[in-house]
Amino acid sequence: MQKPLRKEQTATENTSIDEKDLAILRLLQQNAKATVKEIADLVHLSTTPVHERIKRMEQNGVIKQYATLVDHTKVKKGLMVICYVSLRQHDKTEGSKFIQRIHEMHEVIECYNISGEFDFMLKVVAENMDDYYHFHVNKLSQAENIGHVQSVFVMGVIKQTHVLVN
């Protein structure tokens, strides 16, 4: 007897992506504001099937969201820092508390649970070094269960992309 799928499994495992879907995804990654008509013309389908494919990929979680990418240096967030964080206690409850706290810190724009010497890697943006110092001392270091934090300052961005489908 087959085990019933959980809801989140259904959304990802039953997603079948064909070449037309990949072509649509490529175009949306280049320009999320492209119209269905523009995409349809480029993938050689009519607008209805393109619209249906996009909706299906949104519903199945293939397309998670549409976003506007902002140049952080032009919105007073010119300092980017990668923070490696280790926790003192590694149980599920303490990890969940830390993750909840990270969600409350608007300076943290990305957070990854990692393996190795550290438990988490954060991507933090700040206006300047004073702003980052304030964040580090008054927010991040004050979070419960912080063991060790190592900050690495980004001197330049060589490659930054969100394109997954080429």
Please explain how this structure is put together.
Helices cover 39% and strands 18% of the residues. By secondary structure, it is of the alpha+beta class. The protein has a four-stranded antiparallel sheet with strand order 2-3-1-4. Helix 3 (36-43) crosses helix 4 (47-59). The longest helix has 13 residues, at 47-59. It is elongated, with a radius of gyration of 21 Å.
Keywords, separated by commas or semicolons:
single chain; 166 residues; alpha+beta; 4-stranded antiparallel beta sheet; 6 helices; 4 strands; elongated; disordered N terminus
Helical fraction:
25-40%
Largest sheet: 4 strands, antiparallel
Low-confidence stretches: 1-12
Form type: elongated
Write the layout of secondary structure elements.
Layout: H1 7-13, H2 19-30, H3 36-43, H4 47-59, E1 79-87, H5 92-103, E2 108-113, E3 120-126, H6 129-140, E4 146-153
Helix pairs in contact: 3-4
Short overview:
With 166 residues, the chain is of the alpha+beta class. It has helices at residues 7-13, 19-30, 36-43, 47-59, 92-103, 129-140; strands spanning 79-87, 108-113, 120-126, 146-153.
